[in-house]
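Input sequence (76 aa), recorded before submission:
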Amino acid sequence: MARTIVDLKRNETATVKKIEGGYGLKRKLNNMGLRVGSRVKKVTSQFVRGPITVRTGGTQMAIGYGMAKKIIIEDK
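Predicted structure, token format:
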């Protein structure tokens, strides 16, 4: 089963493998710096399907739970 950003534990790092979504979602994430091949670190998450704060490169951002479920990761 594929792991997503939601499955990461706090302060865990992984590489973005695939983004499952339409053109609009991929474009929005790309503009925020989240793209296939980038390293992402989960900083915080809310208790029940709230926003998730991640860090990629020098940028820290909050993304919604639904968006995070569409970002497939691989551990490396």
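Checked by second reader. The beta strands are 3-4, 13-19, 39-45, 52-56, 59-63, 71-74.
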